[in-house]
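1st attempt posting a full record on here, be nice pls
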Amino acid sequence: MNVTAVFDIGKTNKKFFLFDEHLNEVHRSYVHLEEGSDDDGYACENLEQLTAWMLETFREAQAMPEFEITHLNFSTYGASFVHLDEQDRPVTPLYNYLKPFPGN
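the predicted structure (as tokens):
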């Protein structure tokens, strides 16, 4: 069965879904990961843990013989993104959108 894989990276829970061609949910996985801290000690996403979970979860889904992943999508909280260097390593932590700006 052809499916679309979706990672939904929320602030509290991380979710992974597979949807069939009629958008019926055919698989789901939820996990809660412990927060890390940024260079100022403010709570932030633990990118190493998050990356490991995503890779493991996707590999497990690819190994399911009943599913053929044909599409991949992501949704994240707080318009999150991570800058990568030339070796695809994060340049900075994934800063929390609730972190106060200096001077505020």
